[in-house]
Write a structure and sequence with these properties.
Mean pLDDT: 95
Bound molecules: uridine-diphosphate-N-acetylglucosamine
Number of strands: 24
Low-confidence stretches: none
Helix content: 25-40%
Strand order of the largest sheet: 22-23-1-24
Distance between the termini: 8 Å
Strand content: 25-35%
Radius of gyration: 21 Å
Length: 416
């Protein structure tokens, strides 16, 4: 098992290119089985979750290969409707194969998905949405079995704008008979990217990115070539890394519009953020002011995935900040580890009160999930002395070449 070693105190300067979005590419790869043709995806990040998804596709009988940041998937030879537990448990987004395989074959069998432990992560909304389209869904011994003679478009209201449930529904409805009108859909940019890919394959999806999405089912889809959107959470993570070191960093290949929900948090701390086309420049002050208030909400609210990296900024800001985590029950595991580095964070249910301290000091800490792990790396960049981050395999799930990119910006980090 490897460990990150970080010697804090270096100001980050220079520029880095932001990877393609993990949360967009994984559902798009699952969607590729719907077409029964060849899909070529560009801007695919080099991540463990992508490798696992390639393995799932190969298990299903698809040809799925990576060449640099391009992935080619040929789903013509797909012959299997079943994903074993060993693959499902590797990542949460494996559950998006449910809608995709069901729409392709009329049956799908898989076990409950894994992914980061952020509290209970039920799939009731996914299953209810598929039932509403006419699927018969049985849960047995940790397995989910879906059957549908013919999926039928319907009016569906999601009780909560779940990202995953919206994605499963888009996939199942894209080839259903008739029109599906989905109300209270998730509005995350990754939903728009999935719909963009499906439309490129011949689907008729209107309104993705809004809370009402209309999907006119079509009998066939075909393969296509698509470029995955930039990763807004990776961008926010690099911004936080630059901010805690008092640095100046230029991010290339970003979509600034997707970063609007996090910008005010950076501006509260006194960071200057300038955007031009697909580039974003962040210039941090010597000492950060407090972030003040962060309430995680579905898009266009503040993203829960950026909560942990931004909390590290609050931990070294000059004053008190209050965070409220509204999406996941157990998403403050990094707080205790940040306290080991000298942060002053108190938790009370979904609320965290962070009193900024002038200086963190290096210590061994443990990553417990993907974004919390990134927050610890960022804290290490600001801390005095050496910070060791154990369990970096969590961080590898979401950040491509993180260590090399930080080193290129001047950080003193390496992995043993
Ligand atoms: C996706 C993202 C994840 C992000 C999250 C919220 C991927 C691979 N993951 O996760 O990084 O943090 O969106 O932006 O894209 N819920 C239910 N029943 C369901 C589904 C969800 O109760 O059937 C609850 C969840 O427990 C959670 C909340 O709804 O409390 C949000 O979940 P959801 O939007 O579905 O997130 P994911 O798709 O799992």
């Amino acid at each position: 098992m490897s460990i990150w070693h970080i010697y804090g105190g270096n100001r980050l300067t220079g520029s880095t290119r932001v990877q393609g979005a993990k949360n967009a590419v994984l559902p798009i790869m699952a969607a590729s089985v719907l077409s029964g043709g060849e899909t070529v995806l560009h801007n695919v990040p080099d991540l463990r979750d992508v490798t696992t998804t390639l393995r799932i596709l190969q298990h299903l009988g698809c040809t799925a290969v990576r060449d640099g940041d391009t992935v080619r998937i040929d789903s013509r030879g797909m012959h299997c409707d079943f994903i074993p537990h060993a693959l499902m448990r590797e990542l949460r987004s494996s559950v998006i194969f449910l809608g995709a395989i069901l729409a392709r074959f009329g049956t799908a069998r898989l076990s409950m998905p894994g992914g980061c432990e952020l509290g209970p992560r039920p799939v009731n909304l996914h299953l209810d949405a598929l039932r509403a389209l006419g699927a018969e869904v049985t849960e047995r011994g940790g397995d989910i079995i879906c059957r549908a003679h013919a999926l039928q478009g319907r009016r569906i209201l999601l009780p909560f704008p779940s990202v995953g449930a919206t994605e499963n529904l888009l996939l199942a409805a894209a080839r259903a008979k008739g029109t599906t009108v989905l109300t209270n859909a998730a509005r995350e940019p990754e939903i728009e990217d999935l719909a963009g890919y499906l439309n490129r394959c011949g689907a008729h999806i209107h309104g993705a990115g809004e809370s009402c999405i209309v999907i006119e089912g079509v009998p066939h889809l075909y393969g296509s070539t698509y470029t995955v959107m930039p990763d807004r959470i990776a961008a926010a993570t690099y911004m936080a890394a630059a901010a805690v070191t008092g640095g100046t960093v230029l991010l290339r290949d970003v979509n600034s519009e997707h970063l609007l929900p996090v910008l005010s948090a950076f501006e509260s701390t006194g960071c200057a953020v300038m955007q031009s086309g697909s580039e974003l420049l962040l210039r941090a002050p010597q000492r950060l002011k407090p972030v003040r208030h962060v309430r995680t909400m579905p898009y266009p609210g503040f993203p829960t995935d950026a909560q942990a990296p931004v909390m590290t900024m609050a931990a070294v800001g000059d004053g008190t900040s209050i965070f409220v985590e509204n999406i996941f029950e157990s998403r403050y595991k990094h707080a205790g580890e940040l306290n080991r580095l000298g942060a002053k964070i108190k938790l009370e249910g979904k609320v965290a009160v962070i009193e900024g301290v002038p200086q963190l000091s290096g210590a061994p800490v443990s990553a417990e999930d993907l974004r919390g792990g990134a927050a610890l790396v960022i804290a290490g960049l600001a801390a005095q002395g050496e910070t060791q981050v154990m369990h970096p395999q969590y961080i590898d799930r979401g950040y491509a070449h993180f260590e090399e990119n930080l080193r290129a910006l001047g950080a003193d980090v390496y992995r043993i």
